[in-house]
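Exam revision sheet. Question 4 asks you to relate a sequence to its structure. Input first:
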Amino acid sequence: MTINREESVTDLARRRTDYAREVCSGAEVGSEAVLRAFATVPREDYLGKGPWRLLRPELLPDGYETTPDDDPVHLYQNVLVAIDEERWLNNGQPSVLAKWIDLLAIGPGDRVLHIGCGVGYYSAIMAEIVGPRGHLAAVEIDPALAARARTNLSSYPHVEVLHADGGICEAGPRNAIFVNAGATHPQPLWLSRLAPGGRLLFPLTVSLGTGEVGGGHMLRVMRTEAGYAARFVSPVGVFPCAGARESEAERRLRKAYSRGEEEFVQELRVDIHSEEPSCWLHNAGWCLSKRSFLRP
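Answer key, C-alpha cells:
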C-alpha cells in the first residue's frame, strides 16, 4: 500500500490541533496564544524515535505502557512520556504544563527564564508565545538533557539553552520565570531579576522519601510596586532543584504544610520582621504571609 506523505502530515497537524484544544479545555486555559503554541510545536521532535513509553495517572503505581508503534499520533494525548524511565523522569503532563504556562501570562516580546527545561518541549511552547521579538533562556543542570534541549531548540534563534544551576544562573531581567524543579525556598536571584509586573512560578516541595521526586504546591509570585503578591495555585510532584534546597527550610516547609491553610497565603515578604500570627511560613530573609496584600 502506498502511503501519501502529504496526507499523513496533514492528519498529524489536525490531530495536534485537536490535542491542543483538548489539553487547554481540560486545564481551563483562557489564552489563545497557549492553545496556538500547543497546536504548533511537534512533540515528537523532542522525544526521540518511537515506540514511546507513556504514563497515565490511572497507571500509577504500576508503571508505563508502550505505544503500539512509532506513529507520532500516540504522543498527542494528555499523557506523560518517559525520558528516563529508570528515574521516573518524564516529559510532563500537557494539561498541567498548559495551566502553569497560562498562569505565567507571557506574551509577544517577553523575556522568559525556564529552569529545568528537560528536553525542551515546553520551552518551545513558550518560545512560540514570546515570538522572535522575545527571548527565552532554557536552563538544565543535567548535561545529557541540556545537550538534547540545545539540539531540539536550535531552530529558535531567540532561545538560549544553558547547562547550569538554575538557582544561580544569571540571565538578566525577566518578565516571567518558570521553575520546573522543586525548591524549599525562593532563590534571591529569581526575585531580584523579576521585572516590574513580572511573574515567578515555582514548586515549593518536601521530600516524599520515595526516590528523588518531592511533593508540594506551585507558588505564583508577582512583583508589584507594593511588594511580591503570592498564592499557591496547584499541587505538584517534581524532581528537586539542585542548589535551591536547604534542610532547615525544608523542615519549616514540612511543618507549615502539616498545619494547612496554604490557601490563605497572599504575600511573599522579604522585609526584616519578627514572626507574627499572619506568617504562614517564616524564614530568615523571606516569609509567606497570610496578611492582606493590597495590589496596586
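Marking note for examiners. Residues 5-289 form a domain with the Rossmann fold fold (CATH 3.40.50.150).
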